[in-house]
Specification:
signal; alpha+beta; CDGP_dom; 4 strands; CDGP domain-containing protein; 2 helices; 24% helix
């Protein structure tokens, strides 16, 4: 019984994390591929925008590890260097 309660609590916590990490309603997003999601915020007057990428991260817990989303955001736009492939593709703003 105790195992079921711990498993249920862990599932509830992971669902809450996904809701907190959700992009704003007006964001342009892509889902799937090598990442869970890739979302762009609105374009600023200087032509830049914020891109947030969520990837699955393995969390080791003894004999039963689990995947949890990990979110990272960076500034994108003209003249901005691309840090890695997860952020670089597509190199243009994802329209919402």
């Amino acid at each position: 019984m105790k195992r079921w309660m711990v498993a249920g609590s862990a599932g509830l916590l992971m669902a809450a994390q996904l809701l907190v990490a959700a992009p704003p309603a007006d964001a342009g997003c892509l889902y799937g591929g090598p990442v869970i999601s890739k979302c762009d915020g609105p374009v600023q007057p200087d032509g830049t925008w914020e891109r947030c990428v969520a990837v699955a991260k393995m969390i080791p817990r003894g004999a039963s590890s689990y995947l949890a989303p990990e979110r990272r955001c960076e500034l994108m736009g003209p003249g901005r260097p691309m840090s890695d492939f997860a952020f670089a593709e597509p190199p243009i703003h994802i329209a919402g």
